[in-house]
Specification:
By secondary structure, this protein is an alpha/beta fold. It has helices at 24-36, 60-74, 95-103, 107-111, 121-127, 132-140, and strands at 3-8, 13-18, 44-49, 83-89, 113-118. Helix 1 runs parallel beside helix 2 (60-74) and helix 5 (121-127) crosses helix 6 (132-140). The longest helix is centred in the middle third of the chain and has 15 residues, at 60-74. The chain is globular and about 40 Å long.
Length: 144
């Protein structure tokens, strides 16, 4: 399964995992799933691209279209605080796509979200304001 979504209710944190060859259809299916489960949209998120993960068949134009779909999902929502969306990419083959998604987007206005990329779980955990134990749970998947 190329895309796996996990959730920890007590941390109000989603994890999106990307494995192997991820297609545009799979990315669009994630957006469709979230549209049907809007409570997930209000949580912070850590997106992980695992070694060997890639988006080779996904054009940057398609990524822009998917970003637009997310913008439409978030537009009617109201947030009291800015969501955090952290990315960790362990796959050089996926890095250009992750850079495109997270690097120059104005997600704050579009999705009440701030995007940032990190090199490790520890860095992402600090930014997501997680304790050391919560960061370890995030890394091991315990509770997700």
């Amino acid at each position: 399964m190329p895309v796996v979504l996990r959730h920890n209710e007590s941390l109000e944190l989603n994890v999106a995992e990307y494995h192997g060859a991820v297609t545009a259809g799979e990315l669009q299916a994630v957006a469709s799933y979230l549209a049907g489960h809007p409570s997930f949209l209000k949580c912070d998120c850590l997106s992980l691209v695992f070694p060997g993960g890639h988006f080779d068949t996904v054009t940057l134009e398609t990524l822009n279209e998917i970003f637009g779909a997310y913008k439409a999902l978030y537009e009617p929502m109201s947030f009291q605080i800015i969501r955090r969306s952290a990315w960790i990419c362990f796959s050089p083959a996926a890095q250009a796509h992750v850079d495109h998604w997270s690097g120059k987007r104005e997600a704050r206005a579009a999705m009440s979200t701030t995007l940032q990329q990190f090199a490790s779980f520890e860095e992402a955990g600090d930014w997501l304001v997680l304790s050391e134990a919560e960061t370890l749970a995030l890394q091991t998947g315990v509770g997700f």
